[in-house]
Amino acid sequence: MLNLDLSNISSFLPGGWRTGQEPGLKKAHDFVLNATGAGGEYTGWVRLPADYDKEEFARIQKAAEKIRSDSKALVVIGIGGSYLGARAVIETLTSNNYNLTRKDGPAIYFAGNSLSADAMNEIIDLVKDVDFSVNVISKSGTTTEPAVAFRIFKALLEEKYGKEGAKGRIYATTDAKRGALKGLADKEGYEEFVVPDAVGGRYSVLTAVGLLPIAAAGIDIDALMGGAREEMELLAKPGMDTPAWQYAAARHALYQSGKKIEILAGYEPAFRFFGEWWKQLFGESEGKQGKGLFPASVEFTADLHSMGQYIQQGERLMVETVVRFDCAHTKRTIPDDPENVDGLNFLSGRSLAFVAEQAMRGTILAHVDGGVPNILLAVPARDARSLGALIYFFEFTCGLSGYLLEVNPFDQPGVEAYKNNMYALLGKPGYESQKAALEKRLDS
Ligand code: PA5
User: Is the pLDDT of residue 242 over 90?
Assistant: First the structure.
């Protein structure tokens, strides 16, 4: 379904680069499929598009219908892997202006992904006078940002609807057995959905974590899972003829040749947030032990007028991966102007899609000429089935890529460092000695 074009990397790599990656990929493929590598206990996402909990899936669809019928807004509380996937899918499949362009269903606001009082108050103002529901999502149940946000929105709901009314508007997505949110949800009687043990945050978009908000936005989650399932079946087969092996091999060979940054480029503004999801996926999976391509993302053509300069002529550190959607949702033709003041009549009658295609083709060649290898990934349509396939493709290649780098692609030990310092500075019980040491450093 996805089509990978590697013709614009070969001039940057020695001949036989594919063959050189095969032994590592064979091992990586086995690690991913059979859960035999580092972090193998977190490979529950590998068979997820087929082996998901069907009873829970039906409950997700029912809950989404209820939210769509009784709420003008849905506040999705979560951070990192607990919100990026949902937002990426909703925006990519609808619009980055989803809240303005939606025809029916609730506006969706993402809270608990910052510690900004202004951002929090803005969402409160947007929802307080309309019927709204909350989906609080936290695997650990203890992450500060969403926990703080949930306190605030729970209180707001209880004030508006009473404790009993609020209960019917809170959906908790968390661990099946443990954690503070699980305890609270059990005690209060919220409808609960599960983040499976074997699926880490950044791999959880196809669990209830992503699916409930996505379904609440009116997106066909059956089609999303179906697309992921087709890709899963395709990629399960080992070999350099699969796009997953080719992509993982290409980016690893380019990394070994000295490239340090991979830029994900899209030509649809609606795709911008998918780049945020992709950055977490690759950044948290690969960026450890002093290794890994730094994942960045750009939106073309807008960023060609800003970052385009650096990409063309700055440090030669980059690999560019372009995601192109083959079909636009709508058409627009450029009108003729009898006066031709802007000199653009040579484009009269042309579609914007045609102009965008030439912009993309020209940019690829310019960047390749400027020393940036280019990987082109064509996606048939901006629809749920294709996006399910794209998500699974990146998850699978990320697993392979992590093992090629010889890191554990499924842990994120580095994320704890800031949390520990923040807890100490905030005076969390148990962090007293760190607090004193940190304050001394900050005051010196
Ligand atoms: O990928 C990850 O594990 C992280 O981004 C987490 O998803 C994020 O820190 C949120 O964690 P939690 O869902 O436990 O609140």
Answer: yes
